[in-house]
Specification:
By secondary structure, the chain is α+β, with helices and mostly antiparallel strands. It folds into three domains: 89 residues, Phosphorylase Kinase, domain 1 (2-Layer Sandwich), CATH 3.30.200; 214 residues, Transferase(Phosphotransferase) domain 1 (Transferase(Phosphotransferase), domain 1), CATH 1.10.510; 170 residues, no CATH class. The protein has 25 helices and twelve strands. Strands 1-2-3-5-4 form a five-stranded antiparallel sheet, with helices on both faces. Helix 4 runs antiparallel to helix 6, helix 15 packs antiparallel against helix 16 and helix 17 packs parallel to helix 23. The C terminus is likely disordered. Pfam families: Pkinase.
């Protein structure tokens, strides 16, 4: 019977593995191929599993079979196979931790209110049924493909309410652990879950963990730096707890200074959720009745909530040691509030830049990336700093500001080179690719302008006598780029239609119907004063060039052969930027000192194919 039930679920893909369980995405063949998540619990040795399954799994099964709520994960089936037991859950697309960490997602006040509303409604149902979850954190709040949030992972859950009942204080992930648990309390109530909800709300606002302590003492230090050291009158029985330690007095930091964009109604809710004395924390029903949930803006409907750009593993069974490696950079205990505020501002600028880029609003995107770079530099976050400069380079490139793009990519590459990250080589290769593309585009543009200038000079020498006086002025007052690159030169001349067409083809290197004519050079062959080199953009707003790499040479035999007039076998190093400058300088000298027998073909030997 059990074997048949195991065959009912066809595995699709592996989702994740923890210390005690493995999770798969599966298809329920007996229920129209419905997608589910199968959690296979590892029983262990016979001594460890003499009752069939371990206590944690038994507790989770017992609780979930009695629960049914839209915001509580649904247990669909339970079956044993060989020495394992499998739990079948609703398949959930992602979790709140993925949403918080996704830099492409902009969390609006309406989004945050919707997530908090669903969390508190699910928690209210648990507390009304005398159940403590005891492990609330963002990655235990799962989200399905419809945007509905559900509380999951009941391995540490307990019934409460029995007088004198003693519990262990080693519950809840440390970053979301309440002060009474950190002081060793063994008799506690719903306040431990309420505190965790307050930490989750703060993380939604900051986009980083609010209180990331390295140890229990460090966790308490971070709490008291923000909330202030509790006094005897504020928490009378605090010193009776088994692990109580006397801390020096820290003044409280106003929450408004940390959550600068939050409204008063939200800050009032957070103060109730994060009260140091557990008896002064609000209950779930009181929290849901606070003005924050009835004031505008209204919560976002489920289906309109953001979805992550990449769907990650949904049901995660990771122990404390593995979890520590996945979390964000620990904040220093003395300035966690300041660092969190700066980091949140930088993340906000990144979100604005991504949104503006998608709307092709490059000016707004450039400004947002600039602020993100400055915020990252102030907070010493090299990771965000090189990302901001890479974004600035991409925006400048899309705007056609090639000089500026090159400088930004060089700056980003210089910062990445000093980063100790494991994937720094792949990042370097990506930025080098963008830098190479920008340099080649810049060189091609300069060569195209140079060829256009030479062709313009030839055109003036050839046809200046045939142009009527009233038409001749149109050549003199316009730049080379306007006349030839934009295709307006022939149209403004007095040439016939066929001659214009032939001239365009000859200039582009494709030839015309007429024969090539030799043109004598004269003083008219020099460039007119109105023609200028392409504008060179500066980077005065971000002048830190000490860490930017000076990349002058790239591998290319094609460009070198075209610049030198010789073919080469194999790769050569071509100084791209210097070659461009030398070519322009050579062009001006050539125009002034050309012989009278110079052939027009030699002046237009740089074609569009060469520029590419």
């Amino acid at each position: 019977m059990a074997a048949n039930r195991s065959k009912r679920y066809e595995k699709i893909e592996f989702l994740g593995e923890g210390q005690f369980a493995t999770v798969y995405k599966a298809k329920d063949k007996a229920n129209d191929d419905r997608i589910v998540a199968v959690k296979k619990i590892k029983v262990g040795t016979r001594a460890e599993a003499k009752d069939g399954i371990n206590r944690t799994a038994l507790r989770e099964i017992k609780l979930l079979q009695e629960l049914s709520h839209p915001h509580i994960i649904g247990l669909q089936d339970v079956f044993g196979h060989k020495s394992n037991v499998s739990l079948v859950f609703d398949f959930m697309e992602t979790d709140l931790e993925v949403i918080v960490k996704d830099a492409n997602i902009v969390l609006t006040p309406s989004h945050i209110k919707a997530y908090m509303l669903m969390t508190l409604e699910g928690l209210e149902y648990l507390h009304n049924n005398w159940i403590l979850h005891r492990d609330l954190k963002p990655n235990n709040l799962l989200i399905d493909d419809k945007g509905v949030l559900k509380i999951a992972d009941f391995g540490l859950a307990r019934f409460f309410g029995s007088p004198g009942r003693v519990y262990t204080h080693q519950v809840v992930t440390r970053w979301y652990r309440s002060p009474e648990l950190l002081f060793g309390a063994k008799m506690y109530g719903t306040g431990v879950d309420i505190w965790a909800v307050g930490c989750i709300l703060a993380e939604l606002l900051l986009r980083v963990p609010f209180l990331p302590g390295d140890s229990d003492l460090d966790q308490l230090t971070k709490i008291f730096h923000i909330m202030g050291t509790p006094k005897k009158e504020d928490w009378p029985n605090m010193d009776t707890l088994s692990d109580f330690v006397q801390f020096k007095t820290f003044p409280s930091t106003p929450l408004k200074n940390i959550f600068t964009a939050a409204g008063d109604d939200l800050l009032n809710l957070m103060e109730k959720l994060l009260a140091l004395n557990p008896l002064r924390r609000c209950a779930t029903a009181q929290a849901l009745q606070m003005p924050y949930f009835s004031n505008k803006p209204a919560p976002t409907p489920y289906r309109r909530l953001p979805r992550p750009t990449s769907i990650l593993s949904l049901v995660k069974e990771q122990d404390q040691a593995t979890k520590k490696d996945l979390k964000r950079k620990h904040l220093d205990s003395t300035d966690s509030a300041t660092y969190g505020n700066r980091n949140a501002q930088g993340q906000c600028y990144f979100n604005l830049a991504f949104a503006a880029s998608k709307l092709s609003d490059f000016e707004s995107a450039w400004e947002a990336y600039l602020h993100a770079a400055l915020a990252a530099k102030d907070s010493g976050d090299a990771h965000n700093e090189w990302q901001a400069y890479e974004g600035l380079g991409s925006v400048a490139f899309r705007q056609g500001k090639l000089d500026r793009a090159v400088q930004y990519f060089q700056k980003s590459l210089g910062i990445v080179s000093n980063c100790p990250e494991a994937a720094v080589h792949d990042i370097q290769q990506r930025i080098i690719g963008k830098l190479t593309h920008a340099l080649r585009s810049q060189l091609a543009y300069n060569l195209k302008v140079a060829a256009a200038d030479v062709s313009y000079s030839t055109l003036i020498n050839k046809d200046v006598k045939s142009v009527k006086p009233k038409r001749k002025k149109k050549y003199k007052g316009r730049s080379v780029s306007e006349i030839l690159i934009h295709g307006e030169g022939a149209a403004d001349s007095s040439l016939s239609d066929s001659e214009c067409e032939d001239e365009k083809k000859r200039i582009s290197g494709k030839g015309g119907s007429g024969k090539k004519s030799k043109v004598k050079s004269s003083s008219h062959g020099s460039l007119p004063k109105e023609s200028k080199a392409p504008p060179q953009h500066t980077c005065s707003d971000l002048s830190d060039s000490d860490s930017a790499l000076d990349i002058k040479y790239l591998h290319t035999d094609h460009l070198k052969s075209k610049l030198s007039g010789k073919d080469t076998d194999g790769l050569s190093l071509v100084p791209l930027m210097d070659a461009t400058k030398n070519h322009a300088s050579h062009r001006h000298k050539k125009d002034h000192h050309a012989d009278a027998t110079t052939n027009s073909d030699s002046l237009t030997d740089v074609t569009e194919s060469d520029m590419e």
